[in-house]
Amino acid sequence: MKIWVDADACPVVIKEILFRAAERTKVPLTLVANHSIRTPPSRYIKFLQVASGFDVADNEIVKRLSAGDLVITGDIPLAAEVIEKGGRALNPRGELYSEDNIKARLNMRDFMETLRASGIESGGPPALNQSDRKSFANHLDSLLSKHVKRA
Fold this sequence. Notes:
The protein is α/β, with parallel strands linked by helices. The protein has helices at 12-25, 56-64, 76-84, 102-117, 130-150, and strands spanning 3-6, 29-33, 45-49, 70-72, 88-90, 96-97. The termini are close together.
């Protein structure tokens, strides 16, 4: 198992949780972004810079992803591709995307896009809070614990 991070929009606090988890479990972690991101020195943590452009980082993650890998992303279309390829997708708020919920998430995303395109202000998501961080850390820990037990 490897962890891939759609790092362009990943909150710093989530990256810090991921850095600690990679060190603790020795699971390889790769952040993928189109701009430079500082990472702590570690043999388990890598950074992959891609060219700027629409979905370039997403496409690179999907290209390198293996079944069983975990992707951290808030991008619902990317999460759908990850699941289709046999990976797992966890968003920074701690929601684990699955075959059971991804279609509903895609439909809601498309509906909100339609509203915005018609000029209706829908606002953005609320700021990441302590409950979100805890949910993310708990889901991540659960996934990594299962992986470590199998290895």
